[in-house]
Amino acid sequence: MKVNAMTVSLACRAHSGLHAGIARWARSVLREFPISPPQALARLRESENWRVAAATSMVRASRPPAVALLAALALLAGCATRPDGGRATIHRWTQLEASGGVSLRAIVAAPNACPVAIVDGLARPLSLRARATSAAEPGHPATDNPAFQPDFPVTSCELALPASTRQASLDGQVMALPKSPPRRIVVVGDTGCRIKVPASGAGDPIQDCTRPTDWPWQSVASAAARTRPDLVIHLGDYHYREYCDNPVLCAPSRAKGVLIGYDWAGWNADFFVPASPLLAAAPWVVVRGNHENCDRGGAGWMRFLSPVPYQACGNQSYRSATRSVLANNLTADAYRVDLDGGPTLIVADNAGHEDYRPASATPLDEAIFARTLSALLTLPPTPATWLLIHRPIWYELLAASSPTNALQALLAGRLPANVQLVFSGHEHALQTINFAPTADLASYPAGRPAQVIVGASGTQLEAFDPPSPLYEGSSAAGSKERAQPDGRLYDGVAASSGILLNRYSFLLLEREDAGWAGTLLDADGRALGNCRVHGDRKEIACRFPGRLPGR
Questions:
Q1: How far apart are CA 325 and CA 329, in angstroms?
Q2: Are 237 and 426 in contact, with CB atoms under 8 Å apart?
């Protein structure tokens, strides 16, 4: 019997069916090699790690018949891994990592093995990143800390793709790969649904995760995907559904079936499900937020999104002596992503930094930053650079009277002159802060970079948070928005220009011949205003509402 599309289909029917995308590839590879489906399946079962063996042998085989046979084995492996008849892969995406690397990530339901990708026509198995875990497992540590080793009945997988990769697919779905050069960049930040209520006391205001007007992350993700981006930047804080322990206050959310927790159910509902269209649209650059600290949602961050190899968080309790700080938070080294045509991105982790404390109160932090920010501090002088870091260097939530913190102290006099913009989240608003070129020559001889804050892509706005300086309370909606700075100081220096929007939003940056233009968009993708990046002046000039400045 000859191997053809019908043969492959019959062989896979004995298991769960060959995915249509793999079947199309099969037709192009399997032509005239004589082998029956039972023989093929028997060969599959000979090796415990048959998928890796098949993929490896495909590369080593020199004769076309051998290639066809082993290609068939790899294809049949794809159907043999799905005994339940459904797709084992729950989510899949790509993200950019250090030195131009691309990581293909996938989450599969346990006990399924990691899937096999098709990369430039060859089967490439994904490797295990983090295995499924359960609090019910024998030997699982007993603890009253819900953030420590929560239930994750899923396996996370990854595959490093060569920079030369031209096409990759998983389960028949074509995976997004970097465009050269990227022309449209979506920037989002602070997207999760805010629920953190202790057994006694009011806790944070409870966000209604069931109403798109109250929690619009899914709307934002869909609108952002419609812009057809070449790259997505998430500035951190993916997970906000922490705990809800007050029976009275939490009853409405429970009654609506809202999933809450640091576990897989919480992560899936808060980030992955609503983000699905945007995860499929383009590769991502991911920044760690303070809600991904080890004493909060860090277990999920380490499993799924962290750009470094998986590490398990320690038992750290929020707002306690064991809370997450830079020294114990598995703080990652900053890394560099050189976009074709510029700019260079420096992706940094300052999630564990207690930036509200003076540098003198956190004596270890400046030394830690000096080590982890080496990629920033040793930048060559030529490429225009954007720094991506969750907690802003300058923003409204640090009081004007706040003393210099460890990050500000380190960067003063050491930030490379070619850093033009700093992109951050953390503050649940959209804000730009520009400084006059000569405003702080002692610390920034080449001028302070512009601070851009995109932190209003789903999480409850500062406008609704009573402790926030941007809380609007019973005053008119938008009462704390600004078209110009109000004269307050940011680490001793006033801003020269900038806007502040207290509404759900995201930013679209588009490459033009003269540089980068920006559009501020609301949760449904409607334009709020326009911006232009003036890299030579370290400025992002935005007007709300209005046209492009200068036109």
A1: 6
A2: yes
